[in-house]
Design goal:
Residues 411-632 form the Histidine kinase domain. Its EC number is 2.7.13.3. Helices cover 50% and strands 19% of the residues. By secondary structure, it is an alpha/beta fold. The chain has five domains: 20-179, Immunoglobulin-like (Sandwich), CATH 2.60.40.2380; 182-391; 475-501 and 508-629, Histidine kinase-like ATPase, C-terminal domain (Heat Shock Protein 90), CATH 3.30.565; 639-763, Rossmann fold (3-Layer(aba) Sandwich); 784-907, 3-Layer(aba) Sandwich (Rossmann fold). Strands 1, 3, 4, 6, 8, 9 and 11 form a seven-stranded mixed beta sheet that branches. Helix 5 (239-261) runs antiparallel to helix 7 (269-286) and helix 13 (480-489) packs parallel to helix 15 (518-534).
Length: 913
């Protein structure tokens, strides 16, 4: 039974072999595909020669399926046998065409009817001039005598075994080649024209996606150019290497172009990550040739073609599903080429799907691909142009809206502050009159509500300026110690009212003078301290300043504001720095506020190049920390450091935080400090020093100030220097200094500037008597101040505030009257308070007129202070340009008004003297 089966199989094989008919050549001009007449044999160990193959029976061969042999990649030697029958009576001349230029070694054996064996050799490893026919494909000249001849074609190649065989006479060959070269010329011409057109556009537009298109199209031109065998004229050895190399660079450039064309990094980050990984794999495969060898490298190139042909259309489909127009062009461009490239890759693997015209169809699909993508780019540029036009129009509209917002902001600032100035100013005057208990309660309530309203308005205006980009920072040198002391002094009354301890400490490395914007830094610290005092009912509030050096050598200043207040819930901390946000809905009802302070602080700190954050535990307190870059100034010699370095101080207090804060301040100036928190041990500690130390008695301490002195006097050495740090009301009622002691008082909270001043007085002028808080000394020649203000209520407010301080006042209803009044008697006016917005002539124009008059008459410049509801930076800058010396905002703060007036009047007095 087994023998019967084997016989049937042999009969079937023989029948298939017998079905291969010889190629009949009957015409004088003929071009015939030899695929249907071809049989092949695999010689795995390359042990056969032409004679041995010719001697093999027909059953040893297998027929070629289709119009050409497509056997995939193989290291074997392959023999192809074709029987040719010349039915003419004369020999027939022509060519055997092997129209696949990437075969390394091709050898032809022709067995003529008379038994003679002729052999020829070719292949892409041979230069053009060494081939039997010097063309890019592998051709062999043939002379077929009448009768039957047998052709043997031996092929060995590292690329795919693709062997399209034709017999063609000279005339038919010329016609076929003209047709093929004409088609190639059209395809390459289209590709080159697209490349040149896009190159010109790129030179003008400089669009990145167009640059990647140029690189992709250049690869798309060079790859078929190399595949067709045109590169063998340059170097036959590098032709196959060039094909594989260009395959990898083709897919690299195609992937990169796809990313930019479809805006994948912007809209699809996960897909972009996958494409970048794919490009990394391609780059690794591109560089792997020396490690894996040329055959394996070719397999990787084929697999890259298969994967790329599926991946890039899939990207287009994904983007198209998201309703983006670029995805439509991507999908259309790759749809046809997908089938063709996949078919070519399958042919390389031994699956001939596209047939004889596969290469031509692939080049045609490539041209269509580039053309569709070029149309997509043109559409993209048109969209970008429209978007640019719309963006330009939107920018112009935004500019107009921003200008309108700025005008509205300035107008609202002026219109809101002007009546508030009258309300709050009159309240300040009313509070200084004789009031009963109920009236004073009503006035205090109105004043508190007005101040709260003013704070909310300031926050809203600052936030609006930040949002509109109108807020700019100064970059000037300033005294950090003085700025911190001024900031702390603002909260003295509030801390006293709530019986809270308020401390400030500076580390030793913090410089005294730095560069930056002191006003905005003070605004941030003021907001943080205000919140800390607002949300703390008992305990203490601390301001700590330190310096840290980063690993890159840069320095930063750290400011920490800590309190022992109510704390902040964890879920509320994430919303702290958002606009109009507070810890919870009850916070606003209980404590008030707009919820803008921390948002403004965050914006200001980030504008300074810093960072702000918060840590808090409910019920235990909060700590806000901000840091900004430290920009040092040239530090002058600190006289206090020279005075205190090496000295010893003994600090006594029941408050450990106070000891720590003042101890750090003294340490900045080189002092050694010891501390005492137990009153009974203070006399014992005093006797332990070789020389009498500087003694600081700091409240809280048992008893009154008189009790402190009475209890300590017997233990104090003659000439003992003593600094009493106590609440302001106790400092005003200090007992007379003992004759043997050098004693001064310092009110709490302790600021750096105040402590510095008292230490200098105590150590350099030890006999200076202890005096209560000083009142401003009156001058025998009372200064006269000209007020230029059109609002009668504001005139009355400012006039009364200055008269109560003892100044003479003159009034002007507009800028023209102010100029006339000053021109009439310039020597009688020591200062002008100038409103900016007045009828007939505003304050800016009036200032210009006054400065011009002074230059013409050579008069000394009178200080001109803008007293205005305009608080925007552009108004301040313009005021300084026209000659104003300073700005005071409305509503008028009495203390700030008096301080500013006295500062400029004292400066002018010194200049005059």
């Amino acid at each position: 039974m087994v023998r019967i089966i084997w016989m049937l199989l042999l009969l079937l094989i023989g029948a298939s072999a017998w079905a291969i008919q010889p190629a009949v050549l009957a015409d004088q001009e003929v071009r015939l595909s030899l695929g249907p007449h071809t049989r092949y044999l695999e010689d795995r160990d390359a042990s056969l020669d032409a004679t041995q193959v010719l001697a093999l029976p027909d059953t040893a061969f297998r027929p070629v399926e289709g119009d050409r042999a497509s056997l995939g990649r193989s290291r074997s030697v392959w023999w192809f046998r074709i029987d040719l029958q010349n039915t003419r009576t004369q020999p027939l001349s022509g060519f055997l065409e092997v129209n696949y230029p990437l075969l390394n070694d091709v050898r032809l054996s022709l067995l003529s009817p008379d038994g003679q064996l002729q052999q020829q050799e070719s292949g892409d490893a041979r230069a053009s001039q060494l081939r039997p026919v010097p063309v890019r494909n592998l051709w062999f000249p043939l002379e077929l005598p009448p009768g039957s001849s047998t052709l043997l074609v031996r092929v060995k190649s590292s690329s795919a075994i693709t062997v399209p065989l034709y017999f063609s006479t000279s005339g038919a060959s010329v016609v076929a080649q003209e047709r093929q070269e004409g088609l190639n010329g059209v395809l390459y011409g289209v590709l080159l024209a697209l490349f040149c057109y896009q190159l010109l556009l790129f030179l003008f537009l400089r669009e990145p996606s167009q640059g990647w298109y140029l690189l992709y199209s250049l690869n798309a031109i060079l790859l078929p150019f190399s595949f067709d065998g045109f590169l063998f004229h340059w170097s036959p050895v590098l032709q196959q290497v060039a094909v594989y190399l260009l395959t990898f660079t083709f897919w690299l450039s195609a992937t990169q172009f796809t990313r930019h064309f479809l805006n994948i990094p912007q809209y699809f980050p996960l897909l972009d990550r996958a494409l970048r990984l794919w490009m990394l794999v391609l780059a690794a495969a591109l560089l792997a040739a020396p490690l894996i060898g040329l055959p394996a490298w070719g397999v990787l190139a084929t697999l890259a073609t298969l994967i790329g042909s599926l991946l890039l259309p899939a990207c287009g489909a994904h983007v198209w599903r998201k309703r983006l127009r670029a995805g439509t062009y991507q999908l259309a461009a790759w749809a046809f080429l997908l089938v063709l490239l996949a078919g070519l890759a399958c042919s390389e693997l031994g699956l001939g799907l596209l047939g004889e015209q596969g290469t031509t169809l692939a080049k045609l699909g490539l041209a269509v691909n580039l053309l569709v993508l070029a149309v997509g780019l043109a559409d993209r540029f048109q969209q970008l142009r429209k978007e640019g036009l719309y963006s330009h129009q939107a920018a112009e509209e935004a500019l107009l809206q921003n200008q309108a917002k700025s005008r509205f902001l300035a107008k609202m600032s002026h219109e809101i502050r002007t009546p508030l100035n009258g309300v709050l100013g009159m309240l300040q005057l009313l509070k200084e009159t004789r009031l009963d208990h109920s009236q004073r309660f009503y006035v205090d309530t109105i004043a508190s509500s007005g101040s709260t309203l003013m704070a909310v308005i300031n926050d809203i205006l600052d936030y609006a300026r930040i949002e509109s980009g109108k807020l700019s920072l100064e970059h000037i040198e300033f005294d950090l110690e003085e700025m911190l002391s001024d900031t702390l002094n603002l909260f003295t009354a509030q801390a006293m009212e709530k019986r809270l301890r308020l401390h400030m400490s500076l580390d030793e490395g913090v410089p005294r003078h730095i560069q930056g914007d002191p006003t905005r830094l003070k605004q941030v610290l003021t907001n943080l301290l205000s919140n800390a005092l607002k949300f703390t009912s008992e305990g203490q509030v601390r301001l700590d300043v330190s310096r840290r050096r980063k690993s890159d050598g840069s320095e930063r200043l750290y400011f920490g504001v800590s309190d022992s207040g109510i704390g902040i819930r964890q879920e509320a901390q994430a919303r702290l720095f958002e606009s109009f946000s507070q810890g919870d809905s009850s916070t606003t009802r209980r404590y008030g506020g707009s919820g803008l302070g921390l948002a403004i602080s965050k914006e200001l700190v980030e504008m300074m190049g810093g960072h702000i954050e918060a840590q808090s535990t409910p019920g235990l307190g909060s700590r806000f920390t901000l840091n900004i870059p430290l920009q040092r100034c040239g530090e002058a010699r600190d006289e206090l450091f020279q005075l205190l370095v090496g000295r010893t101080a003994l600090l006594a207090s029941l408050d450990g935080f106070a000891l720590d804060a003042i101890g750090r301040l003294l340490g900045r100036w080189g002092m050694h400090t010891e501390r005492c928190r137990i009153p009974e041990k203070l006399p014992e500690q005093l006797t332990g020093f070789d020389e009498p130390p500087l003694l600081l008695l700091i409240a809280p301490w048992p008893g009154s100030v008189e009790y402190w002195l009475d209890a300590l006097y017997p233990h104090l050495a003659p000439g003992q220097r003593l600094l009493l740090v106590c609440p302001p009301e106790q400092c005003r009622q200090l007992p007379a200094s003992r004759s043997s002691l050098h004693m001064l008082g310092l009110p709490q909270p302790v600021g750096v500037a105040a402590l510095r001043k008292k230490l200098v007085e105590l150590l350099m002028e030890p006999t200076h008597p202890l005096v209560p808080i000083e009142d401003p000394a009156g001058d025998s020649q009372v200064p006269c101040i000209l007020i230029a203000e059109d609002n009668p209520v504001n005139q009355l407010v400012v006039q009364e505030l200055l008269k109560k301080r003892g100044y003479h006042v003159r009034l002007a209803g507009n800028g023209a009257e102010a100029v006339a009044e000053y021109h009439r008697s310039p020597g009688a006016v020591q200062m002008i308070l100038m409103d900016c917005e007045m009828p007939e002539m505003d304050g800016f124009e009036a200032t210009l007129q006054i400065r011009l008059l002074e230059r013409l008459r050579k008069w000394p410049a009178v200080p001109i202070i803008a007293l205005t509801a305009h608080t925007l930076d552009e108004h301040r800058e313009y005021g300084l340009e026209v000659g104003m010396n300073d700005f005071l905002g409305k509503p008028v703060d009495k203390q700030l008004l008096h301080a500013t007036v006295e500062r400029y009047l004292s400066t002018r007095t010194l200049v005059d003297n």
